[in-house]
Structures are given as structure tokens and as C-alpha cells.
User: Which sequence fits this backbone?
């Protein structure tokens, strides 16, 4: 079964019933999974379109997390909780960069953000693309290490 991926214009093959996150990672598609597939972070969110019969139903954990993620809509799913059941799916990979460690952006102070920098748990855009990264913006990520540790254990 073929799954189309956007915006990278690629396709991957998967068995019916395959876990989407595992499929993407097996094909070396860059996607983060801060909570390691437990359905409690925002990093593996994707937008899925296609026939309803090709999509596994949302798990209770997925529904709970999606209700907390900034900007989630009717197409948003958690790749770690989603199974591809049949042909016809298109997957839009997450936009922006999920920051897992403050160190990832500390070195970029003074530069323009090359993408939306997003919180890995809430999915919130903390630094929009093209904005100059300032030291004061680091405040937005101040509890990042603790928050990431909490979901990744
Ligand atoms: S890896 Fe965290 S929700 Fe999927």
C-alpha cells in the first residue's frame, strides 16, 4: 500500500495496519517523537486525508492529546497512534521545528527563525518564521527540559 507524503512529495510503502510513525521512521522520514510513541506530545502530529476506511479510529489517548494541541484540526492525527488500513492516504508532515532542548536555539540568538519554532508538547508556535531570535524569547522555553523529561520517561 502506498502512502503519499507532503510537502516533500515522496511516497512510502506500508502493510495494511502499519503504524504510521514506525513506517515514517523506517523510511528515514524526519519526524520527532518526544514521548516515544505514547501519544502525549505534539511532535508526531500530521494531517491525514483520504477515505475514512483507510484510517484507524482515534484512541482515547489520541483524542485527549489532540484536544490539547494548539492548532489541531479535523485532519490532525498523531502518527504514533495512527494505523494506515488501506490505499488512498495522503499525509502532510508537521510544519515548523519542534524544539526539544533550549540548546537547539541558544546558538541562534540574533538570527532569523528559519521556520516556526514550536513547543514539543503543546505544538504552540513560540517563535514564528522570520522573527529575530532574541535572548528574551528564551523565556518561552524556560521549562522545556522538565516538560520534555516528563513525557519522555
Ligand atoms: S510521539 Fe508523542 S504523541 Fe506521538
Assistant:
Amino acid at each position: 500500500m502506498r502512502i503519499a507524503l507532503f510537502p516533500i512529495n515522496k511516497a512510502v510503502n506500508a502493510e495494511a495496519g502499519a503504524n504510521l510513525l514506525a513506517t515514517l521512521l523506517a523510511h528515514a522520514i524526519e519526524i520527532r517523537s518526544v514521548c516515544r510513541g505514547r501519544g502525549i506530545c505534539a511532535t508526531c502530529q500530521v494531517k491525514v486525508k483520504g477515505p475514512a476506511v483507510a484510517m484507524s479510529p482515534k484512541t482515547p489517548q489520541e483524542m485527549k492529546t489532540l484536544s490539547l494541541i494548539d492548532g489541531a484540526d479535523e485532519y490532525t492525527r498523531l502518527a504514533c497512534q495512527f494505523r494506515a488500513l488501506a490505499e488512498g492516504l495522503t499525509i502532510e508532515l508537521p510544519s515548523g521545528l519542534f524544539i526539544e532542548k533550549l540548546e537547539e536555539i541558544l546558538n541562534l540568538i540574533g538570527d532569523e527563525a528559519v521556520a516556526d519554532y514550536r513547543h514539543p508538547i503543546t505544538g504552540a508556535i513560540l517563535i514564528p518564521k522570520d522573527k529575530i531570535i532574541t535572548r528574551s524569547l528564551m523565556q518561552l522555553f524556560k521549562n522545556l527540559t522538565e516538560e520534555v523529561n516528563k513525557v519522555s520517561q
Q: What stands out?
A: Residues 69 and 111 are 27 Å apart (CA to CA). The longest helix spans residues 60-68.
